Amino acid sequence: MKQQKFWKYLLIGFFIISMSACDSKEPQKSSAEFDEFIEKLPNEIMDNDNLNLEFIFEHPENYGFEPELLNLPYSNKEDYEASDESTEELLDTLESYDYDSLSDQQKMTYDILHDSLSRSKDMAKFYYLANSYLGSFIGFQAQLPLLLNEYTFETRHDLDSYFHILETTPETFQKYAEIEKERQANDVGMSKAILDKVIEQCDNFSKDKNPFLIETINRRIDQVSFLNDDEKKEAKAKNEKLLKESFVKGYADLKTTLEQIDAPKEEVGLAKQPNGKEYYKFLLSSTLGLDDSVDKIREYIENEMENIMLEMQAVIRENPKAAQVILQDTSLSDLQYVNFTSFEETIDYLGEQMKQDFPDVGKLNYDVTKVPDSMKDNFSPAAYLQGKIDAPMDAPEHIWVNGDYDQSLFETLAHEGYPGHMYQHTYFKQQKLPIIRYMIDYNGYSEGWATYIERNAWKYADVDDDAKLILRIASLNKQYTECIIALLDIQIHYDGISYEQYIENMEQYGIETDGMEEMLKEQWYLILETPSNYLQYYVTGFKFQDLYDKAKSELGDAFDAVKLNEALLKNGPAPFHIIEQEVDNYINSAK
Fold first, then answer.
1. Is 549 domain-assigned?
2. Could you report the per-residue pLDDT of 393-441, keeping only the tens digit for each?
3. Do the Cβ atoms of 361 and 426 come closer than 8 Å?
């Protein structure tokens, strides 16, 4: 998702909260036993009623999962403590294997799994900070309708689980509200302004007398083979009843409960909350996959700002006419990339153009769906919903778009489609690695890749050279702004600046603030509510570009963009020290 890809974090980040089923094992040494351990791991780290199963597997029963009615996610403090204990046990088991006896591919799985678990340890101490399901921007209550829209019915059990989710939504939403009350009591809850946004969102959902899921799910029920015509009719009637009553009631009841919370008017970042600075450092490590300190990351961003300015100055010196167009005569929304009239035309065009720089995966099967009107205000410009691990390679991929087609969305569609998330996921899936590898995620890797793609999308625009120069300058200008936002994220959540200081810093960075109060306030809330989120895009996006530039500089004429991007992609989500080593291996082999 552009700037807020929450789905994958929500659905795949189960290492944090769902490790309670992991058993301690006797030390094992052989590579064959390591394979057996890795093969059984998915079933051990996820419970049979975990909603993640619906979005990770097409046939979870093939991986040892017993059919149980799925539930909406919920964890309490005891679950967090049990997760910490299980994570330690799993690390002990992993470290009992003879690393030197493993194959190269086994070592890669070992290294990534070990790193991921090590970064997710000791979550219980951040329980009140981390255990939040509600939010105006990426809250679970905001994402749930679209997640259910992607729900598939392979068996009758799938349909029963879907109905169970609708029936239990009011009960589970009340648990979320109780958690927020606990967070408020521990001085880490939402501010009044953000809580009011959640309440307004719940109000919008609860007033929807004809939820869009009725048509979508009923159409899907019509397509199943395990029901006869009478059963389909009954199932569709049940779907409509549960959506209009139970599901909508969940949002209405949540609104009523949240209205009773006396949230503070003061708006502060993590730095002003108990244990907040430590939690912020934890977030940067676990999601970015970097080992750098906060101050080192800050210095890195500042250096990138200087480099961007130098590059922009060089481009402007060489092309003053093009620079004048972008700086004086053209707004970013007026930039021309392609002359198409649909999302699909643009995505397909990018799929052809990218072949000069990226390994070919063939033409992908995908569909583009518009975000329902009731969710537009809380959704990003576009999002890609990751396909299931065990689905056929020709299974349709899903891209959501917010609004009508506009060619200015060229970079956004590159981010979500080719050669961004959709391509990234498909290429990795084709590697046919152990299932557990597809269940580990580093948001910094996933979003860093898509941001790296987005920043270079101008190269594929179907325009003349002068127009491409304008697009290049616009991209650099956007990257500079992204650096500012990333620094503000650190300043708010690590330094503890106030809103007034935030405005002052904006002005010092050269941002016009007069008459921009509404836009600046909205940006403030986005940063406040989603600590480290922007760094998962912007910082790691620069890291990918650094690796590209390093390989190109060291190899000269021997540089091959396809081979370089293959090195970046083939192991999938991983910490950056592993990605850097893979690029070094490519460079050494190409010399």
1. no
2. 999 999 999 999 998 899 999 999 999 999 999 999 999 999 999 999 8
3. yes
